[in-house]
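Appendix C reproduces, verbatim, an entry submitted by the partner laboratory led by Prof. M.T., so that reviewers can inspect both the input and the predicted structure.
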Amino acid sequence: MQVSDYIVKKYGRTVMPRESMIEGRTEEMDLADLIAVILGKGSKYESVFSISERIIKEYGSKTIAGIKDPKKIDDMLKIGLVNSCKLVAAFELGRRFYDPPSKRRILIRGPEDIYNYSREMSSYVKEFFRGIYLNTRNYVIHDENISVGHLTGSLVHPREVFKTAIDCSAHSVIVVHNHPSGENEPSKNDDEITKILKETGEILQIPVVDHVIIAENGYYSYSKAGRL
């Protein structure tokens, strides 16, 4: 059996990602193939192509690119710390090369800005809980995916939200999460999380200025609804 026949039989491919890159077709490669090149190989349970396609399909490129802790990536994807470190390093290099400090900062003036900034979360198939951290002038100084759960919801603890706020010297916090169900109405669990985070923020003097739920049918803002 020729190598090309083996590739087609095992992976459904006639050309491997590295081959495409060497032949000068990098711009034609999709995100999953680029991630496959970074990872290099899969695990004994899953091919590198299956892993890279799963990363894009289940978590979205922006979500993975925004996580700087390899342990979090490994917890989510179960790809091992070595592969997780490779992803973090690749995305961090990209940020440092093409996202210089002089780039225009993002100003958050209200719920509509929060929604526009985070609207890609409406397409995620799993529920993500995200912290957006602001300075005294309401510019974004840090953005982090705090937790990921299943379709039924995700678990969030105040210490995860506010540890990051303290580390980056944030003046205030916005929390955002998505509803994969497509409906943006808050659940009882959402109300409880909001109440706990609001009370914690008051104690620490780092206020939670909004909690926004994003879904296919739009968004819900606790601040806009007068519930914060």
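Residues 3-98 form one domain. Additional entries are available on request from the coordinating office.
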